[in-house]
Structure formats: structure tokens, C-alpha cells
Design goal:
The chain is of the alpha+beta class. The chain contains 9 helices and 14 strands. The N terminus is likely disordered.
């Protein structure tokens, strides 16, 4: 079974996707998700690490500041009154009196000469640089291949003559343990980052597969349709995909319907042509043909032409209005009335119209012209002098077109015969021609309600009820 172009496109894309994984939607989503997730996780980890490091350094600086305040509380003038000393009994930090404890303190005068050092110092520390009065100078330095936190503070202290003397207090703290903790934190952070990223990637891969499963089902159903295992899409799809499958089902049903119509039209055509061909065959066997036989020949030829035209029109009529472009019924009527008034100019038909400014219908424009044109043509053909055309709308929003004429009309039994859609073309009433048979087939395919009745003008009334958009 051949499918429409949409199906061919789906199959082609599927085949190309199997040859090139980059064209796979799943591969694209997985790749993009992986890149975005990895970038997000790395940026998050870097930001978190910087925040932790900054907070840890601030905590170290605050701790050293408290030590300097504690040290200054133990500072007094020396015996000369011109310098400073540190009272050991007022040092409340035991690490300052414990050798190689990792915490060291020094006091410098304004000439950067060492005035006092804590008992914990067993080595010589490098001299300090210039410091600003009342400012904290915090940094990480390396001394003898060992990292240290160093905090310096410049202050002024009055001597015995109340003269302000400049001093620098410097605290050194071993930073080895800090960097070891920082390394452990980084190792833990990146380990959990990698584990979390892998878990999220697995979850996202599962979600992607689950989300794209409807597309896989569509591919499987297309294959089943191609193999004639089913006639349409049968699965329940998400709201984003449902319109696609519904429209594809419409196209498939239309194709099947058209095939059936073609088959039936050809059968009807063959059956309908049997009688005219038999007559022509009989005439061809006669040696002499009189005028009556020529008329019969001409009549059968015209009839065969009508049969062929009817079956072609029947076979090509639209089967589903949901895929048809909306047509303005008012514009169609105005075009037809303009043409018919010129055709029947000698009859001087008076046309009264009662129509809104616009009325859109979901119907093929050619079919609309065929239906309305045939009904208007019959009204003009059999009217005495008046034709009435009205378009209205009922409570169900359906458009109602009514065409009345003041002709002789039809008897009730003839009206019933017109509405009998099972009547064969070669059994149609003479005078009605093929037009109403075509109209009956078109309105049936669109599920349009068509009724004939006695018109208030005295002739025939044709009433069409179109489905609302």
C-alpha cells in the first residue's frame, strides 16, 4: 500500500537517522543535555568552592584578629617606659608559649626591629613590609617551604613622655592543616559532583527515551500500515503529537475512500455504458440509417458523455471537510448569480437575496461551486420570473442556504425520487439531467443535509444545511 508524502518523509527521516546518529532526536537531546548539565555542574562546583574558600579565609583572618586583640591586652611599657613588653602571665593562648606549636607572634618597633617574640618561635621569620596605621594586612605566605597565614597590624602606643610610638604586631599561623582540609573538601566535592552528574544523566536519558517513545510508536505504526497490518494510527498519543496522527489518519482514510470511489466509479461506468454501447453496436450492424436512428445515435452519444462526466466528478469529490480550506459561501453565491443573470438575461429573472456579509464553510471550493451552481442553475432554468436566495444560521451554528423559485415545481413523488441517492444515473428522471445526481453525491461525502420542498413562491425550494466550522 502506497502512503502519502508525509509518510514517505517520516520513513526517509527514520532511515537517515539510523545511518547518522547525529540526526537522531534522542542523540541530540542526550548530547545537549550532557553538555548543559556538565557545564552547569562544573560552574556550580567552582562557585561553591570559591565561596567555601573565601569563607574559610575570612574565618582564619577573624581568628588571627582576635589573637592580636588578646596579645595587645598583655602589652605593657617596659622598665624604661620608652618601649613595650608582653606579660607572659596575661597570654591566654597556650600555643604562643608552646614551642613549634604552629602559632607565632612578633612585635616590631617603628624601625622594624623585633621587640618581642612568642616562645613558640624556633626559627627566624622574614621581615615585614610597610603597613598602614590601623589597617589589617592579611595574606598567605610561604616560609621554609611551609605555607602560613600572616596577619599584620600597625598601631601607635604612648611612651612615658606621652609620645606616640609606632609598632607592628604580626601573627603567623601554620596553614598546612588548612590546605589539607581544603584538598579533602575539593576531593569530596568533585567526587559527589561526578556521581551526581552521572545519576542525573541516567535519569535524563531515561526521561528522554520515555518522552520520545510516542515518536518510536509512530514509526512502528507507519511500518505496520505499510505492511497492511493496520489501516491507521491506533495508539493514544500525547496532545502535542495527537493532531499529527489525527491528520495522518484523515489523509489515510481519504486515500482509502478515494480508492474505493475510483473502484466503484469504474464499475458504475462500465455498467452504465453497457446499454448505450449495445444500442450503438446494433445501429452499426444496419446498412441503412434513417433520421430517427441518427437521433438515437446522437442521444446515446450525449448520454455516454454525461455518464463519463458524472463518474469523473463523483470519483474526484472531496471526502473529508476537516482538511479543506474555508470558503466564503457569500462570495461563491455572488459569483454564480452574476454569471447566471447573464446566461438567463432573456428571462429577466428577478433575484432577491438575504445574506450576511460573510459565511465561511469548510468545503472544497470546486465542490461548493458545483453544488450551489447546480441548484441555482435549476432555479433559474425552471423559474418563471423570480428566484429567492437566503443564507442564515441556526442554533447549532450551521449555515443554511435556501434557494426558491416561482416555477411549476415538482410533485411529491418526484421530490422523493430526487432525494433517492441510490437511483442509478441511467434511471434518472429526464429533464433533471446529471447535475442533481452530482450534487447528491457531493453533499453525501460532506455530510450536508439537502432537502427539496414546495417553495412559498410556488416552485421548488432547495435547502442546504452546511456543517459549522
Amino acid at each position: 500500500m502506497k502512503l502519502c508524502a508525509v509518510e514517505v518523509t517520516v520513513l526517509t527521516s527514520k532511515g537517515q537517522g539510523s545511518q547518522n546518529s547525529v540526526k537522531s532526536i534522542k542523540s541530540r537531546l542526550t548530547l545537549v543535555s550532557t553538555v548543559v548539565l556538565v557545564i552547569f555542574m562544573v560552574l556550580t562546583a567552582v562557585a561553591l568552592e570559591r565561596a567555601v574558600v573565601k569563607r574559610a579565609l575570612q574565618a582564619e583572618e577573624n581568628g588571627l584578629q582576635l589573637l592580636i586583640y588578646s596579645l595587645l591586652a598583655a602589652v605593657d611599657r617596659d622598665s624604661s617606659g620608652l618601649g613595650l613588653k608582653v606579660s607572659k602571665d596575661r597570654l591566654f593562648e597556650p600555643d604562643l608559649v608552646t614551642r613549634n606549636s604552629g602559632l607565632y607572634a612578633l612585635l616590631y618597633n617603628q624601625r622594624k626591629q623585633e621587640v618581642w617574640r612568642s616562645e613558640s618561635i624556633t626559627t627566624q621569620f622574614p621581615p615585614i613590609s610597610e603597613t598602614r596605621l590601623g589597617k589589617w594586612d592579611f595574606e598567605i605566605s610561604e616560609h621554609l617551604a611551609t605555607p602560613y597565614f600572616r596577619l599584620a597590624f600597625a598601631l601607635q602606643w604612648p611612651d612615658v613622655n606621652d609620645q606616640l610610638q609606632a609598632y607592628d604586631v604580626v601573627i603567623w599561623r601554620n596553614a598546612v592543616e588548612y590546605f589539607e582540609q581544603l584538598d579533602r573538601f575539593r576531593q569530596t566535592l568533585w567526587t559527589w559532583l561526578i556521581v551526581t552528574t552521572l545519576l542525573l544523566l541516567l535519569v535524563m536519558y531515561g526521561v528522554t527515551r520515555w518522552s520520545l517513545r510516542p515518536l518510536k510508536l509512530i514509526g512502528q505504526e507507519v511500518k505496520a500500515i505499510e505492511d497492511q497490518l493496520q489501516t491507521g494510527f491506533e495508539q493514544n498519543y500525547p496532545s502535542e503529537i495527537a493532531p499529527l496522527t489525527e491528520n495522518l489518519n484523515i489523509l489515510l482514510k481519504r486515500e482509502q475512500f478515494q480508492r474505493e470511489r475510483y473502484r466503484n466509479a469504474m464499475d458504475d461506468l462500465a455498467h452504465s455504458l453497457k446499454t448505450p454501447l449495445a444500442v450503438l453496436t446494433g445501429l452499426s450492424d444496419q446498412k441503412h440509417v434513417d433520421q430517427g436512428q441518427l437521433d438515437t445515435l446522437r442521444e446515446q452519444t450525449d448520454r455516454m458523455n454525461q455518464i463519463v462526466s458524472y463518474q469523473l466528478q463523483k470519483a474526484t469529490s472531496v471526502s473529508d471537510i476537516r482538511i479543506s480550506k474555508p470558503v466564503d459561501l457569500i462570495i461563491v453565491i455572488e459569483k454564480l448569480l452574476s454569471a447566471l443573470e447573464k446566461v438567463y438575461q432573456e428571462k429577466a429573472i428577478s433575484v432577491s437575496c438575504e445574506m450576511p456579509g460573510q459565511k465561511l464553510l469548510r468545503i472544497d471550493e470546486g465542490d461548493c461551486l458545483e453544488v450551489v451552481g447546480n441548484l441555482l442553475d435549476n432555479a433559474f432554468k425552471y423559474a418563471g420570473s423570480r428566484v429567492s436566495v437566503s443564507v442564515s444560521q441556526n442554533e447549532g451554528q450551521s449555515a443554511i442556504l435556501q434557494i426558491d423559485d416561482d416555477g411549476e415545481g415538482l410533485a411529491s413523488d418526484m421530490i422523493e425520487q430526487i432525494l433517492n441517492r441510490g437511483t442509478r444515473l441511467d434511471q434518472a428522471t429526464e429533464g433533471q439531467g446529471i447535475g442533481l445526481a452530482v450534487v447528491a453525491d457531493i453533499v453525501e461525502s460532506y455530510n450536508i443535509d439537502l432537502k427539496f420542498d414546495r417553495a412559498t413562491l410556488g416552485g421548488l425550494s432547495a435547502r442546504l444545511e452546511f456543517r459549522a466550522i
